[in-house]
Amino acid sequence: MKQTILARRYAKALFAVGKEQDNYEEYNQALQGLAKLYVSKPEVADALTNPLYPLDIREKVMAGMIKSMGVDKVMGNFLNLLIQKKRVVILPEIAEGFQAMVDEEKNISHGNVISAFELSAELQENVQKTLEKLTGKKVKLTTSVDPSIIGGIIAKVGDLVLDGSIKTQLAGLKDSIKGRE
């Protein structure tokens, strides 16, 4: 079960401290790296969360990770707090929330473009520039291919959805023809 509200609170607290000390980007790198390790290596997740291991053993594992990452004292204390409060399980969600706050601070939005065929680099750049003009933010795009849209593209950035697919246009035409009957 996702504990998004709790994860957001932890991320917000760490972000506030990081912003105050002007090193939230370093905190973000450490969190993203640790979350990636936590998700990709089940043995790391087990060593940090398994209740069969005593708390002091889990704290030693985290201390070793903190030392190898070379993070500052505040970040180290934060990670130790997660161990002590048995909240390491929400580490990936904390990292995700922290990344969203960093992106907001840097005025960056994430967008997704779905097309019927693979977009060329030039076309992808043009779409990105257009979306940046529309949103007023820097946009990081991910692209995917869905042949079922027949042609055109569907662009999503935050709440903004621009659907220029032929599939949607044909569905609209079909509805308008049905409406005339």
Reported by name, the CATH topology of the largest domain is: Peroxidase, domain 1
- Strand runs, count: 4
- N/C terminus separation: 49 Å
The CATH architecture of the largest domain can be given as Orthogonal Bundle
Describe the structure concisely.
With 181 residues, the chain is α+β, with helices and mostly antiparallel strands.
What distinguishing features does this structure have?
Glutaredoxin, 181 residues, alpha+beta, 2 domains, Peroxidase, domain 1
Question: Could you describe the 3D structure shown?
Answer:
The chain has helices at residues 4-20, 24-40, 42-49, 55-69, 73-84, 91-105, 121-135, 166-180; strands at residues 108-115, 138-145, 153-157, 160-163. By secondary structure, it is of the alpha+beta class. It folds into two domains: 4-104, N-terminal domain of the delta subunit of the F1F0-ATP synthase (Peroxidase, domain 1), CATH 1.10.520; 108-180, Glutaredoxin, CATH 3.40.30. Helix 7 (121-135) links the parallel strand 1 and strand 2. Helix 2 (24-40) crosses helix 3 (42-49). The mean pLDDT is 94.
